[in-house]
Amino acid sequence: MSYNIIESGKPKGCKSHGGCSSGGCNRLNTFDWLGDLPVADKESSCNVIEVSFSQGSRKDFFRNSILLPLEKGELVTVEGVSGFDLGEVSLTGEIVRLQMKKRGVKEENPEMKKVLRRSNDRDIDVWKQNKGREREALVRSRAISRQLKLEMKISQVEMQADGRKATFYYIADGRVDFRELIKVYASEFHVKVEMRQIGARQEAAKVGGIGSCGRELCCSTWLTDFKSVTTTVARYQNLSINQTKLSGQCGRLKCCLNYELDTYLDALQHFPDNCDMIQVSKGTASLIKKDIFKNLMWYILPDSNKQYPLTIERVRKIKSLNQQGVIPDELEAVDLSSSKPKEVEHEFVDVVGHISLRSLEKADKKRKQKGQQQHSQGKRGDQNQQRPQQKQHPNQSQKGQQHSQQPKRNDQNQQRPPRQSGR
């Protein structure tokens, strides 16, 4: 039964359960490009495996003397200092021999430690319990070093799986006398103490983080060989010496400054040497920068802030004339504005023909007039509704009707002719 170091079942990164080289599942992964090749002779196959500890921050080689069929990502129990340790299998097979050759480790080394067994439940429980002590030990160890007034910084504490040994990684500018410190650590944590000094770059590799490029730090994902980086590297690439921009999270110059250095050095071989100062009639021109992409050299004249770009051929010609004692009149700078492609302004072309807008204007006027009329009618209706209506008593209305009907009857009586009596 194999155990995977990813407990939640949902690995990070590319979700390949530690089998990728993207750095998401395990730091400083190595792609096994020999894993798919068949082995001709199994007896001569490599019996050494590479095991990573603390998520790839430390790796070591162990001999698989019991010939366990191990795969990448499995947890194995290996020999430790007066006990056992637990780590993750990072490489197996023939690719391990290439890694050993790269690090200068011999396969026949008799002092190489061995693989004891696959990690069982008990080993994993003890390992998790002791790994949980690392955070508390780091805080306490820093406090003790400050009490002893030692000029050092405890960067990381790594506990062995069985809890019998602890490795303290520290950073210091000079030599530190930590003999008294070891005694205090041993009595405080009840473990065998080992002190290891690391640099600022190694600390950044252990801590990890995101660089200014937006990607994970190279030192914590794939970079293992730290080469020295100086300010001359930035000068070759015509970079401004800005400490905040050229420094990484470790406080040192960025390792990526060395990546393109060889390309710049090859390109700079075509530029003439000893041409920092050239003589013209206006004075001595000083070189300020070189543009290797356009093969131009930029000069500046005294008492002037204007920069003059010159071709390599022109600089060589002026230098040869100066050596002959001839001073040219002008620098003959390159006109960079003429070399830029001019943007063509497209003229207006009537592809539709003449369009009359009078019909649209008339319709718009009618629409506005209709809207104004509706608006004015709405205002009048509101004013009529706001007028108060006089209420009449119902009896008064009936009386008024009776009075209005009486004169009509009188008028009818007056219009009738008088009756004549025949008697």
Architecture overview:
By secondary structure, the protein is α+β, with helices and mostly antiparallel strands. Among the domains are: about 1-120, no CATH class; about 130-205, GMP Synthetase, Chain A, domain 3; about 225-270, no CATH class; about 275-335, no CATH class. It is built from 13 helices and twelve strands. The strands form three sheets. Strands 2-1-4-3-5 form a five-stranded antiparallel beta sheet. It has a four-stranded antiparallel beta sheet with strand order 9-10-11-12, covered by helices on one side. Strand 6 and strand 7 (about 165-170) form a beta hairpin. The chain is extended and about 100 Å long. The protein starts with about 45 loop residues before the first strand and ends in an 8-residue tail after the last helix.
Q: What is the N-to-C succession of helices and strands? A: EEEEHEHHEEHEHHHHHEEEEHHHH
pLDDT < 50 stretches: 1-13, 390-394, 396-415
Counting H and I runs of at least 4 residues, what is the number of helices?
A: 13
Which class do the helix and strand fractions yield? alpha+beta
Helix content: 25-40%
